[in-house]
Amino acid sequence: MSVDAITFRTRKWVRPEDLNANGTLFGGSLLRWIDEEATIYAILQLGNHQVVTKYMSEIEFVSSARQGDIIEMGLRATAFGRTSLTMRAEVRNMITHRSILTVDRVVFVGLGDDGRPTPHGYTEITFDRDRIPPQTA
Ligand SMILES: CC(C)(COP(=O)(O)OP(=O)(O)OC[C@H]1O[C@@H](n2cnc3c(N)ncnc32)[C@H](O)[C@@H]1OP(=O)(O)O)[C@@H](O)C(=O)NCCC(=O)NCCS
């Protein structure tokens, strides 16, 4: 596996409520899943519960999925900034083996208690669970 390979972690089963009027996967559902996946990834990489989506680059839906298909989503951190984390995302269809979309840059920013960007201090990806933020409650 190449050093910058995407790790596909989450799988989704396409259900009737995820379809558009054309009977294929609704783009809005897919973007919600990607945003949630990226949020979890950012929390675990930055060690901070308070992360927000700042930017998503161009998205092209190159193929789709139908009811009953299984899709998988993957992310890879590509740059650690001072307060931000940039990731690449890919979604592919496990049934047709086709890529559904890629997003070259998804940027998350870690916030402090004042709601402003806060430095995270990290420069490298962790593959462990060593940055899980402490319980907030
Ligand atoms: C996130 C937010 C606090 C950042 O505020 P800001 O004034 O832009 O902050 P800064 O200018 O200090 O930038 C913070 C980081 O974002 C990066 N950034 C800012 N604008 C960017 C853009 N258009 N594209 C990519 N990165 C960007 C900066 O480079 C900086 O990263 P770095 O510290 O790693 O260098 C503010 O824009 C915000 O609250 N946005 C709404 C977020 C939101 O509600 N998201 C959807 C729901 S989760």
Automatic annotation (TrEMBL):
**Record's InterPro entries?**
Cytosol_ACT, HOTDOG_ACOT, HotDog_dom_sf, Thioestr_dom
From the UniProt record, which GO molecular function terms apply?
A: long-chain fatty acyl-CoA hydrolase activity
The record's annotation in Pfam families points to: 4HBT (PF03061)
Q: Does the keyword Membrane apply?
A: no
GO CC annotations, alphabetized: cytosol
Q: Which UniProt keywords apply?
A: Hydrolase
Entry's Gene Ontology BP terms: acyl-CoA metabolic process; fatty acid catabolic process
| HotDog ACOT-type domain location | 4-114
Q: Which SUPFAM superfamilies match?
A: Thioesterase/thiol ester dehydrase-isomerase
Under PANTHER family, the record lists:
ACYL COENZYME A THIOESTER HYDROLASE, HOTDOG ACOT-TYPE DOMAIN-CONTAINING PROTEIN
Provide the family line.
Answer: Belongs to the acyl coenzyme A hydrolase family.
Name listed for the protein in its UniProt record: Acyl-CoA thioesterase
Q: Lineage of the source organism?
A: Bacteria, Bacillati, Actinomycetota, Actinomycetes, Micrococcales
